Amino acid sequence: MKEGYVRYGNKTTTRVMSIVTFLILVCLSCIMLLPIFVMLTTALKPAAEIFRFPPTFIPNQFVFSNFVTVFDKLNYLPYFFNSLFVSSCIVVGTIISSSLVAFGFSRYNARGKNILFMLVMSALMIPYPSVMIPQYVLFNNLRWVNTYLPLIVPTFFGSAYMIFLLRQFFSSISNELFEAARIDGCNEFKIFWRIALPLSKTALATVAIFSFMWSWDDLLSPVIYLSSMDKYTLPILLSGLTSKFRLPPWNTMMVAALYSATPCILLFIFCQRYFVEGIVTTGIKE
Amino acid sequence: MNKKEQNRNFFLFISPWIIGFLLFTLYPVVSSFYFSLTDYDATRAPNFVGLSNYIYAFQDPVFAISIKATLYYTLLSVPLGLLLSLVFAMLLNANVACKGAFRTFMYLPSMISGVSLSLLWSWIFNPQFGIANYLLSLMHVQGPLWLMDENWAVPSLIIMSLWTTGEGMVIFLAALQGIPKSLIEASVLDGANWHHRLWNVTMPMISPIFLFQLIIGLINSFQVFTQAFVMTKGGPHYATTFYVYNIYQNAFMNFKMGYASALSWMLLIAVMLVTWFIFKFTNRFVYYQGGENN
């Protein structure tokens, strides 16, 4: 046996094992992808074909127009843009506030810093339902109910997950850069703005992607705060569909669901790197 | 920079978080306790009623049902999800072709989440035309009514939750790849077989990640809401009236804000207790590299 090379068993077993693993993975992938497949094919079926037993795996007739008629049938677009507006504001708020706070935690020493950081982390554990009622009362007193403000404004004060993620990143930037800038007469905010942020594009992209996806899917807080239909976000629209129709048009609904998952899927396809990085650094799922 | 400047800059930079924490976390947590001692109904001024909201909770059958449903869901979906994502990660960590493609396939279902996912699974579980009962009928099994059957509603949601194991898988995969090759090689040279390696090398090395995943999984699962709201409306016959769904109903449908505050306080206590208990109990099983357990 050559040095530095270890074989886990003999050659034939290894090969057999890797073939078996491969086959298992093929089966698992098929099982995991089945729901998405069902979603796609249902979205393409004509109305008559949805309510047929046995269901067809491949539609007998492809109705691509489903992807257009959804805009008429569900008045889809205004809600899409509502969601887009809310999520964009949340992304901006989260990035600005969390990066400022994370910079503070990573760059300066102060008394009580560790305790404060423990508080940030413990805020991660506090369930939203435990604070939502007083928050509602607060925003109600401010006359903010049925506006987007209760959804957006809190994000301008930092998100614990993102503070954690960005602090890790800022801490990895070498201190010499900051010292050099300081000697050149940069003030602290300029150091943050001109040096720390441009160096952290990857981490900021991760924050942007994750805060977008979480707010895009959020149902509970929009349901609580938004009462007039013209303000609804996509999740509220979609959540009402099953009870809206006597005979739900599943093909149209699947198109609607697909469209609303599209931004996240696109982000995943084009920014896979940031995804993996973000999930791994924070160890967080939704 | 001297100490004073450091202090000043530190607090300047983190001031957004301090304000946010006081306004949107600390104040709500404290005032939610105050509301829980009142009969607040969102319109009239709250009256102090002592502990009667808490006493009422223990007489309220829906409270008991909601705890049972939430625990049922949590105790099955979290361990199963963890186990599956770990197994998936180990399969992908093995020496196998097309790793990248498999990783994408397994992760893709996690991209469809929230309400879209709930709509999709409402359709899959449709007793007459859904794919679930069709597949069962191929095996000559008469499928249940799924979400419309009291006994099957929660299991249906558990089954559905297993399709989002992709995220846990990615995390475990990274943890597995972070195990130094030298450790594994050394154990092989010492004659360890695969289950020795699993229990004495792999598991200890990924135990901190495992613990973190467990805690986050439990906390999230305690708050399951979307599925109940979209797919079952808490039914049939309260079967999926999960804890948070019950809070939502009481606070924003019945406007029993005082009672709902009591419920939400108990949720907070439960989450903290569970987290503390897990840390305390698992301490001796979790291996932290380069540090004493404390």
Description:
The complex is a heterodimer of chains A (286) and B (294). By secondary structure, chain A is an all-alpha fold. Chain A folds into 2 domains: 11-64; 68-282, MetI-like (MetI-like fold). Chain A is built from 16 helices and no strands. Chain A has helices at residues 11-44, 47-50, 66-73, 76-107, 113-123, 128-141, 149-152, 160-171, 175-183, 188-199, 201-217, 220-225, 234-239, 241-244, 250-270, 272-282. In chain A, helix 4 (76-107) packs across helix 11 (201-217). Mean pLDDT of chain A is 84; it is low at 1-6. Chain B has a single domain, classed as MetI-like (MetI-like fold, Orthogonal Bundle). The longest helix of chain B is centred in the N-terminal third of the chain and has 34 residues, at 3-36. Chain B has 294 residues and is an all-alpha fold. Chain B contains 13 helices and no strands. At the A-B interface, helix 1, helix 4, helix 5, helix 6 and helix 11 of A face helix 1, helix 3, helix 4, helix 5 and helix 6 of B.
Furnish the topology, listing elements before pairings.
The complex is a heterodimer of chains A (286) and B (294).
Chain A: H1 11-44, H2 47-50, H3 66-73, H4 76-107, H5 113-123, H6 128-141, H7 149-152, H8 160-171, H9 175-183, H10 188-199, H11 201-217, H12 220-225, H13 234-239, H14 241-244, H15 250-270, H16 272-282
Chain B: H1 3-36, H2 52-59, H3 61-93, H4 99-111, H5 114-124, H6 131-138, H7 153-161, H8 166-177, H9 181-189, H10 194-222, H11 226-232, H12 243-253, H13 257-282
Helix pairs in contact in B: 1-13, 2-13, 3-7, 3-8, 3-10, 3-12, 4-8, 5-11, 8-10, 10-13, 12-13
